[in-house]
Design a protein that fits this description.
Number of strands: 0
Largest sheet: none
Shape: rod-shaped
Helix content: 55-70%
Structural class: mainly alpha
Mean pLDDT: 76
Order of helices and strands: HHHHHHH
């Protein structure tokens, strides 16, 4: 039993060769290293993949949702063009079209008389009613053929 090695083998075997029945330390190290490396590469890939969403998080809701959808499409289809489009869209600041359009809409409704102006707050923070600020004429002073400007606008519409 003193002669375990083959007669043609060298006297000093390398460290990574284990004797029969002993634990293979190199194998254990490689297994642990591969598991850690796979988790690290996967985490890096997913963080890199979510980069456009992270950049678009500070932008408008619509832009963020569009970037998120493009990112998911690129993740599931493995088409890199969707990820590139999401990254470019996240880096570009889209102009705010909804605020001016809603302001125009409110102004047009106010001109047409469709909105009660007593419920609308002005930019100064005070709600004013132009009809309430005008002096009201009593029924005896107004003639039936005279109508208020609000009634004439509603009559034409």
């Amino acid at each position: 039993m003193a002669e375990l090695a083959h007669p043609k083998a060298i006297e000093h075997l390398p460290v990574f060769i284990t004797a029969p029945g002993e634990t293979d330390l190199l194998f254990n190290f490689v297994v642990i290293f591969l598991v850690v490396a796979i988790f690290a590469v996967g985490t890096f890939y997913l963080r890199l993949h979510s980069l456009p969403e992270t950049l678009a998080h500070k932008s408008h809701k619509t832009q963020y949702e569009l970037v998120a959808v493009l990112g998911l499409i690129s993740l599931f289809t493995h088409n890199n063009i969707f990820w590139i489009a999401a990254l470019i869209l996240a880096l570009i600041d889209l102009p705010d079209f909804s605020s001016p359009l809603s302001s125009i809409s409110r102004s047009l409704e106010r001109i047409a008389g469709k909105v009660d102006q007593s419920t609308m707050a002005e930019p100064g923070g005070m709600a004013t009613d132009p009809v309430a600020s005008e002096p009201k004429a009593s029924a005896s002073q107004s003639s039936p053929d005279q109508s208020s400007p609000v009634q004439s606008v509603e009559g034409r519409a």
